[in-house]
Specification:
Strand content of chain A: 15-25%
Strand content of chain B: 25-35%
Structural class of chain A: alpha+beta
Distance between the termini of chain B: 40 Å
Number of strands of chain A: 32
Largest sheet of chain B: 5 strands, mixed
Order of helices and strands of chain B: EEHEHEHEH
Structural class of chain B: alpha/beta
Largest sheet of chain A: 6 strands, antiparallel
Oligomer: heterodimer
Radius of gyration of chain B: 13 Å
Helix content of chain B: 25-40%
Chain lengths: ~950, ~120
């Protein structure tokens, strides 16, 4: 089953909007959209309405301009007819024309006045009869007439008394002959014109008339205008209309407008006037705004309805969907969520029910699969456990059988048990003193091992209650499949601190099995299941007991072996670890290399000792067999050899005696060599041993092949030959056992050839030579057999000078005498003189030892010289001189004086110097 | 290591100890005991043959004086055999051993002197 793809399908990625969000955004967008449409519609309508209103305003303005024009035309027509009539009539004075004029004026109610002037501009008749004789010659229209104008429209004039604006129309009155007799003038109030227009207009509409200068002739706008206000320069729209083009207006084109208006200014061509028509803008906008508000309310209602739909969808579809989506995700993760029945759409309920039955089905399948898997796993684990138990038993048995170090073995056993057979394994063994010793604690986690040790250190097991002690006493195994608090308390875990520690170890199942040797329990192996929570069964107990029986055998064997081996080792150590003699001009070194695999000590041994005549004995031996018996024979042989050598037996006879002694004790090979430093000879006998080699100072190597006979113990009454050979000063004699040359099964001759080759050219000091031989012959690997080597190198002493340095101890005396003797012999001093000199020097040395020191590490130095036929010897100590006490010490000084020519004792702060001098009897070649 | 050995034999009922090897401070005490033990109470004296001694110093001389004193307490005489050409002769003479303990050139001389004392 691919979980990943499932998750992908169920989990909405963060970039994808959830349904709720989408719906919410849609509602908001809808709201904004509707709002925008409403506002745009409002703007468009406002513009359109305004345009149409303005258009209609232009029409109205044109209609009214036409009415004004007709009025003016009437005035022109009427005066034309009147002028014709008057021109053909009688005299043009008041009496003749006054009534006619009055009838004319009354015919047109708008006319304010009708009068006639003479050609000079003096009023000669009028409708009302007033103003006769008054001259109006200065008025522009009279001037224009006198200059020949046919008709003249005057500009607006403000009446002096009334303040009313008046306009006059004038034309000449021509006689029948066509001569101008007078001028006819008709004046009227423009206000009357506009008032008449006003009657046909809406209440808020206003009409204004301008004369050709832009002067305001009249307006229906409810305002009283001063002459100054009337004659302000006209607005551009008015000027344009005066030039003959109708103009639409929006705003405040007239100075007295107090609010925005819309309307038009149109020309009135007959008099070159302009007419402005306007209505206030506010009512129009108010109407439109009301319409907009209604639209907005509609939008709001639509949005509210959408929101309600959104909430319903959210509540009844989206929420249940989301919950189900989460549930599906949980199912995909492998959980088994409770599916709540959320109130919602029927479809969601059905989906939930479907999901629920799906979860149930999945859970059932999973359970089936899981239990099948568990069964399979359990079976496999059981098989594995059985296998690992078997493996563990096999491995452990193999290990127990092979090693003789039982502590290490038991520790390993504990380690091997973890983790296949236990989380914990401990091994406790009674030592030789009957104390319980914890040999091993093993756990997979080293920190836990620390904890276990802490537990044991802080709370050592109580012998009365501890399970280990109980098993030791009873010898019966114990099995606790499950551990409870009560058990722990019964086992002595009574305080909380300890209980806590134990719980930290999480013991779950414990098994204790005794290690019994011949019916006696010597130890206990404890197996514990802890963290893994597993349980021990009877099968496990049987296996553990089997293991414990094998461990017991291993312990028994190892202990027995160890006792034996300890004895053998002690024996061999006592035979090998001895101080080699220190002699002037002679260096001795030895090596002992135990065999690679052997657990028992071998029978190799070596020895080196000075003989009383100044010679040095060297021994290399190899007793057949190993272990205690071989060690015992080795010890006997070594002691006997030394004793025979001290008695002065030469190598051949010595070997015969040893052969007698060996009769009933098996076999041994021995190489015995006596080195005579006085005469530079070696004398040796070889009882079946590999021959020693001599490395000459020039690097050549020789084998000491003579003096060879049968091994000791091989043949009773055998004759042992000996051989003598001279060696050069500076030579090194090397004795060894066959372990050095018997390698890789090659013939012994080949091994010896290799040894000779290895030694050739290496005539160094014994220590270096032996290291070189070991490295070359064994190639850094432990040999199959024990290997022992012994080397001695002797240098010629300095004939002119001898320097000796010995510990201030009585035991130094023989070595002093031998060294001195060797030096004197080398200088051809006769034996009796050598004896006397030796006695004198010994007395001086004894004095130094006896009186000078308390501390054992102090030294005495002897310097001897031969010069001018005399021997000079100084014995120097660092003690305080005391007069000799006792008869024999006095005799010592006396002897010195008697045996030497001169004796001088010089005591000092630092020490005492005894100087001895003796003239030699014969010439000495230095 | 100083090596000496004592071999005791009876010659005509007279005990004779043959001392060989070297005698010095290391082994003087042991040699002294062995020599004194060589003379039973019943014996008239003790002959010590020093012919085989290769080294002897003042400690050895002291040993001889001491041995002579202990034997004298038991009224037993001590006779030494020292050949004329023995190395140690000079030491014995220098320490005046001969003034207290009779020296003889050979065993028969010592035997004769001891028998004469009886």
């Amino acid at each position: 089953m691919d979980n990943g793809s499932n998750m992908k399908r169920i989990n909405l990625s963060p970039r994808t909007w959830r349904l709720g969000t989408t719906l919410a955004v849609s509602v908001v967008l809808l709201f904004v959209f509707l709002l925008s449409i409403a506002l745009l519609t409002y703007q468009a309508m406002l513009r359109e309405r305004r345009n149409s209103e303005v258009d209609s305003a232009v029409i109205v303005a044109r209609t009214m301009a036409a009415q004004v024009d007709r009025l003016l035309a009437d005035v022109e027509g009427t005066t034309f007819t009147a002028a014709l009539f008057l021109g053909g009539g009688p005299a043009l004075d008041q009496s003749h024309t006054g009534a006619y004029l009055k009838a004319l004026q009354e015919q047109y109610d708008i006319l304010r006045a009708v009068f006639i002037t003479d050609l000079a501009g003096v009023v000669i008749a009028s409708a009302e009869g007033e103003g006769i004789g008054r001259s109006i010659a200065s008025r522009p229209y009279i001037i224009a007439l006198r200059q020949g104008a046919r008709t003249v429209w005057s500009d607006g004039l403000v009446g002096l008394q009334s303040g009313e604006v008046t306009v006059a129309f004038a034309r000449p009155v021509n006689g029948v002959d066509g001569t101008t007799r007078a001028f006819l003038v008709a004046a009227f109030y423009p206000l009357r014109v506009t008032a008449r227009l006003q009657a046909s207009l809406p209440r808020d509409a206003a009409v204004t008339l301008f004369d050709r200068r832009g002067f305001i002739l009249a307006t229906t706008y409810p305002v009283r205008l001063t002459p100054e206000q009337r004659s302000v320069p006209p607005a551009p729209e008015v000027r344009e209309a005066l030039e003959g083009r109708p103009v639409r207006t929006i705003g405040r084109p007239l100075p007295f407008h107090r609010e925005d208006r819309y309307g038009a200014v149109v020309p009135v061509p007959r008099a070159h006037w302009a007419l402005a028509f306007g209505r206030p803008l506010a009512p129009l906008q108010a109407r439109l705004r009301a319409q907009l508000e209604r639209q907005m309310i509609a939008v709001g209602i639509a949005v509210i309805l959408a929101s309600i739909v959104f909430l319903i969808v959210l509540q009844r579809v989206v929420r249940p969907l989301e919950s189900l989506a989460r549930t599906s995700a949980a199912i995909a993760r492998g959980e088994r969520p409770q599916i709540q029945v959320e109130p919602g759409a029927v479809e969601a309920g059905e989906l939930a029910a479907g999901l629920r039955s799906m979860v149930g089905a999945i859970a059932r399948r999973e359970d089936e699969l899981h239990s099948a898997l568990q069964n399979e796993q359990a079976a496999r684990e059981a098989a594995e456990r059985a296998q690992s138990r078997l493996t563990f038993l096999t491995e452990a048995s193999a290990m127990l059988a092979t090693s003789l170090d039982y502590e290490e073995t038991l520790r390993n056993l504990a380690r091997m048990a973890v983790p296949q057979f236990a989380d914990w394994a401990t091994v406790d063994v009674l030592d030789e003193n009957g104390r319980l010793e914890r040999l091993g604690v093993a756990h997979v986690d080293p920190a836990k091992v620390e904890l276990a040790y802490e537990l044991q250190q802080r709370f050592p097991p109580d012998p009365r209650t501890s399970g280990v002690y109980r098993v030791i006493r009873s010898g019966q195994p114990e099995l606790y499949p499950a551990i409870t608090d009560e058990m722990l308390r019964a086992a002595g875990v009574y305080d909380d601190e300890r209980l806590r520690l134990v719980w930290e170890l999480k013991f779950s199942s414990i098994m204790l099995v005794p290690i019994a040797i011949r019916g006696e329990t010597v130890g206990v192996i404890t197996f514990v299941w802890a963290e893994s929570g597993r349980t021990y069964t009877n099968d496990d107990l049987h296996l553990a007991m089997d293991l414990a029986r094998r461990a017991a055998r291993a312990v028994d064997n190892a202990r027995l072996y160890r006792r034996t081996r300890n004895t053998a080792e002690t024996l061999q150590r006592s035979l090998l670890l001895k101080t080699l003699p220190e002699l002037p001009g002679i260096a001795i070194a030895a090596r002992y290399l135990p065999a690679r695999m052997e657990t028992e000590v071998g029978g190799d041994w070596y020895d080196a000792f000075p003989l009383q005549d100044g010679r040095i004995g060297l021994v290399m031996g190899d007793v057949a067999g190993r272990g205690v018996e071989a060690g015992a024979v080795m010890g006997q042989l070594q002691n006997a050899l030394r004793a025979y050598a001290m008695e002065g037996h030469e190598p051949g006879t010595l070997m015969e005696r040893l052969n007698h002694m060996m009769e009933a004790h098996g076999m041994a090979t021995v190489f015995y060599l006596v080195f005579d430093p006085d005469h530079w000879t070696v004398r040796y006998a070889n009882a079946g041993h590999p021959p020693a080699i001599v490395c000459a100072p020039d690097g050549t190597v020789e084998m000491l092949e003579g003096g060879a006979s049968l091994p000791l113990g091989g043949s009773f009454g055998a004759v042992y030959r000996e051989a003598t050979r001279a060696i050069m000063p500076g030579s090194t004699i090397v004795l060894y056992t066959d372990g050095l040359i018997e390698l890789r099964g090659e013939p012994i001759d080949a091994g010896m050839d290799r040894l000779v080759r290895a030694a050739t050219g290496h005539a160094g000091l014994p220590d270096g030579l032996l290291d070189h031989l070991v490295a070359t012959m064994l190639k850094g690997e432990p040999s199959a057999d024990d290997v022992a080597l012994l080397a001695l190198r002797a240098e010629a002493l300095d004939a002119a000078h001898l320097h000796l340095r010995f510990p201030a101890l009585p035991s130094s005396l023989p070595r002093l005498r031998h060294a001195l003797r060797r030096w004197l012999v080398q200088s051809d001093i006769p034996p009796n003189e050598i004896f006397e000199i030796s006695v004198a020097v010994s007395e001086a040395f004894s004095n130094a030892v006896e009186h000078a020191y308390a501390a054992g590490d102090a030294v005495v130095e002897i310097n001897a010289r031969i010069a001018d036929g005399a021997l000079l010897i100084e014995v120097q100590d660092w003690g305080k001189w005391r007069a000799p006490r006792g008869a024999h010490r006095g005799r010592g000084l006396g002897l010195m004086r008697g045996l030497m020519d001169e004796v001088a004792v010089t005591p000092g702060e630092a020490g005492t110097v005894v100087r001895l001098r003796r003239t030699l009897r014969r010439e000495v070649q230095v | 290591m100083t090596v000496a050995s004592v071999r005791v034999q009876l010659m005509d009922g007279i005990p004779m100890a043959t001392l060989t090897g070297e005698v010095d401070i290391v082994n003087a005490g042991e040699i002294s005991g062995q020599l004194f033990a060589a003379a039973p109470n019943t014996a008239t004296g003790l002959i010590v043959d020093l012919s085989g001694v290769s080294y002897l110093d003042s400690r050895g001389v002291h040993l001889l004086f001491e041995l002579a004193n202990r034997l004298r307490m038991r009224h037993q005489g001590l006779h030494l055999v020292v050949p004329p050409r023995a190395l140690i002769r000079r030491v014995l003479l220098l320490t005046h051993v001969d003034s207290v303990i009779p020296l003889h050139q050979d065993v028969s001389g010592a035997m004769g002197a001891l028998k004469a004392e009886e």
